[in-house]
Amino acid sequence: MSVVPAQQTGGGGGSSGLYDVLELVLDRGLVIDAFVRVSLVGIEILKIDVRVVVASVDTYLRFAEACNRLDLESGPRKSPGLPDVVGQITESGARGKSKGALSGAAQTISDAFNQARQEGEGESRPRARRTASARRKEEQE
Amino acid sequence: MSTYVYGITASSHPALPEDLGGVGDPPRRVRVLTEGGLAAVVSDAPEGLRPKRRDLLAHQNVLSQAGAAGCVLPMRFGSIAPDDEAVTGVLAERADHYRERLGALDGRVEYNIKANHVEEAVLHHVMAENPEIRALAEANRQAGGGSYEDKIRLGEMVAAEVKAREAQDATVLQRLLEPLAEAVSVGPDSTGWLANVSFLVDRGSAEDFLTAVEQARKDHPHLEIRVNGPLPPYSFVEPGPAEPANAAAGADAGAE
Lengths: 141, 256
Fold this sequence. Notes:
The complex is a heterodimer of chains A (141) and B (256).
Chain A: E1 8-10, H1 14-27, E2 36-37, H2 57-69, H3 82-99, H4 111-122, H5 127-140
Chain B: E1 3-10, E2 31-35, E3 38-44, H1 53-69, E4 72-74, E5 79-81, H2 84-93, H3 95-105, E6 108-117, H4 119-129, H5 131-142, H6 148-177, E7 183-186, E8 195-202, H7 206-219, E9 223-231, E10 243-244, H8 245-255
Antiparallel strand pairs in B: 1-3, 1-4, 1-5, 2-3, 6-8, 6-9, 7-8, 7-10
């Protein structure tokens, strides 16, 4: 973010911060009818997919898999004491900050999950979108 | 030569850095056009400008630099006027409107907040709070993962719970932060985040706002909260989309 000195970014690390700002640059700000706008055709960043991913079979399977592998020492018999849960969350949250939302969860969750995350880390932002487009590509092939 | 427009400011705005580079390769020199009490921050428009990452960043950088010295109304990326006269013409024509906005936004900056769930953490919450899901997950586990149908059924239930929590957490987050903002603008939904909200914050209380964000992070460790700011007030340039904080809260409550 060295080109943006007044910028202060927190949480998601450099690339996601960048993505988050570009979303604003492209999608908000003053528009004046008398001026022409540069064509934005083909910009991936502009694709604001409405929440389709959450409602897909792929997501269901991924969640099922993730639940299957979740270390539920705190579940199902032992009703989870909150401190227990919070401790684990904080840990994964802190790790997540340095690499992206799901990094902290990686160890316990499936390979498919891992793969999706790696795809998502390569470029700008959200893994959900990257996975979605990757998936679309697969479907087309 | 067509003219690329970055933003509109008051002509009393402090001078920009001498060598400020704008869009294009090589970067076009940024200059200022004045008309009446207003000024437009512009550069020559490169031929065939495309929304490349470098150009998007240049746009943002020019506005950051200009915004650091005083209020700027940021243009959306990619606004090109036929020539300089067309720009000053627009400044003259809509002078009252721009003056009003510059006055309303003076001394204020935008902070954009985006939040995600830390997935493992939210799955823990969902399992902990829903005995039915817990039982189904346990049954699947004992069956070596369960059949395809079992997995779909579990996943669907989990997805519904996660989605409900997303909406709930988005509301919680917005309610926590909006008392510290003068206006709130909710961004478009997307799969990339559960909350995408911009807050208009007085420079003087930016510290308080960031403290509140930090507190929200501590209190809601299952959320990954990203803050971007101080930014030029991208989301507040038109009176339309930006509502006073309390009005937004009211609308929210009504929707529930």
